[in-house]
Specification:
Blueprint: H1 21-30, H2 36-45, E1 48-53, E2 59-64, H3 70-80, H4 86-89, E3 93-99, E4 102-106, H5 113-120, H6 123-127, E5 130-136, H7 141-145, H8 149-164, H9 172-187, H10 219-230, H11 238-249, E6 258-263, E7 273-279, E8 282-286, E9 297-300, E10 304-310, E11 314-323, E12 326-332, H12 336-376, H13 392-400, E13 433-434
Parallel strand pairs: 1-5
Antiparallel strand pairs: 1-2, 3-4, 3-5, 6-7, 7-8, 8-9, 10-11, 10-13, 11-12
Helix pairs in contact: 8-11, 9-10, 9-11
Length: about 450
């Protein structure tokens, strides 16, 4: 049986880091539309219709002109989904190119969406061999803490996708638990499944069981095992079931990782062909085949002080403390440039989220201090003085004088004392190396 290749599902790159990209983009934007159907649609709609798919196979269509970038479209998509912080959360997502079901790389943030769709031509309007898929690009701690229905759903459908393409678990019992949750979410409450018989799912069983496990049972046996586990979820809401699904998969180290096929020649105890995954924790090295619970090697982000790539066939990291053979750890990889830029994206995202957490903590501290000040500050008490009757002359003077009003309670003004934000600077980008900021160690 041929080895199943993992999908490259979360790769991204920045246009301003790729030499010659601006030239190619300026050329593309000057190209006249030669496709007849797209030209007619553009004339009628005022822009190019762009169909965006999601990992549950639903879709939404947007009309984009040539000034619509992948970044701005990501904001529009999140707004359409009802996200109240679409501007801030868009950095965590990407729009990926899929060709005949194989997931590729994400569009550059400043790249024109319309130009890419035009480059697909009229034939793709009908065949849809090439699709644009909206997915999570950066699985940061902040993303994983978002619990709104919109974010829970986006995280859930990506978790299902990763399980089915076997980027999570090969344990049959865990797969059945997940499949039962997915079944109840898709087809209704657990109480409605008593009359289900094997054959109900038919060929759709592949949407619930990873292909690498299908040969262990007949289709009918898999369905029966799923139905038997559905009753444990009776009365649970779809939102709670999605949260439960993610609680199970989050135990796997591979959760939230982007996987690349690589070759290595530095570790004698490991084979030449390996898989490298990138996440907010750093870089993991895995064996090929079904993923194990733990990787062979782990390089945490706070131990990686430098990374980069050479041409398109290699990327490397430099670690501290160094390994017995030195601090340089190279890998051969077709997508070396994307690996280096993804590490850069994660490092910058972690630094940004740490700044946001520090700022929120400081504001909360100031708020608490402000309450304490209001509780402790009281109006000054007046001292009692002996009362004496004024003389007749003094009384006449007091009646003629203007008496100013007495002072009230003391007024307290507090000023925030925010710590200076961490400044991250970078030199001019080159094709040889992308140097990282060094974020604080992840707890």
């Amino acid at each position: 049986m041929a080895e199943r290749q993992p999908a490259l599902r979360s790769q991204s790159y920045h246009a301003d880091k790729l030499r010659g990209h601006a030239v190619r983009m300026s050329y593309a934007r000057d190209v006249e539309i030669e496709t007849k159907e797209l030209a007619v649609l553009k004339s009628k709609l005022g822009g190019v219709p762009v169909k965006i798919y999601f990992l549950d196979n639903s879709s939404k269509t947007f009309v984009c002109d040539r000034n619509t970038t992948f970044k701005s479209l990501s904001v529009d998509i999140l707004r359409k989904l009802g996200d109240d912080n679409a501007e801030g959360n868009a950095r965590l997502f990407g729009i990926f190119q899929s060709h005949n079901g194989v997931m590729g790389v994400a569009g550059a943030p400043d790249q024109s969406v319309a130009d890419m769709v035009i480059s697909y031509g009229d034939t793709n309007l009908h065949s849809e061999a090439k699709k644009l898929v909206f997915m999570i690009r950066l699985f940061t701690p902040m993303l994983q803490s978002m619990d709104t229905p919109q974010m829970v759903h986006l995280r859930y459908i990506q978790a299902v996708y990763d399980v089915i393409i076997n980027e999570h678990t090969s344990d049959p019992e865990e797969v059945l638990q997940l499949a039962a949750i997915q079944f109840v979410i898709k087809f209704g409450s657990a109480g409605d499944h008593g009359d289900r018989e094997p054959g109900f799912l038919g060929n759709r069983i592949v949407e619930f069981i990873p292909a690498c496990l299908m040969s262990q049972k007949r289709k009918e046996q898999w369905e029966t095992a799923i139905f038997q586990r559905c009753f444990t979820h009776r009365g649970k809401s779809a939102l709670d079931l999605k949260r439960e699904y993610m609680r199970i998969v989050q135990h796997d180290t591979i959760y939230g990782c982007t996987v690349f096929n690589c070759k290595q020649y530095i570790f004698d105890e490991m084979p030449e062909g390996v898989r490298v995954s990138i996440c907010h924790q750093g870089l993991y090295v895995w064996s090929t085949g079904p993923f194990k619970r733990e990787p062979w090697k782990e390089f945490h982000l706070h131990d990686i002080f430098r990374w980069g790539y050479r041409q398109d066939d290699q990327f490397y990291i430099e670690v501290n403390p160094p390994l017995p053979g030195g601090s340089l750890v190279p890998f051969q990889c077709e997508y070396g440039k994307h690996v280096a830029n993804l590490l850069q994206d994660y490092a910058m995202a972690i630094v940004e989220e740490q700044d946001l957490e520090d700022e929120a903590a400081e504001k909360e501290k100031e708020k608490e201090q402000g309450v304490d000040i209001e509780l402790t500050v009281e109006a000054p008490k007046e001292t009692e003085t002996p009362v004496r009757e004024p003389s007749e002359a003094a009384s006449r003077k007091l009646e003629a004088a203007e008496v100013p009003p007495r002072g009230g309670a003391a007024e307290v003004a507090t000023a925030p004392a925010l710590a200076p934000a961490l400044a991250v600077t970078s030199g001019p980008p080159t094709d040889e190396v992308a140097t990282s900021p060094t974020p604080a160690p992840t707890p």
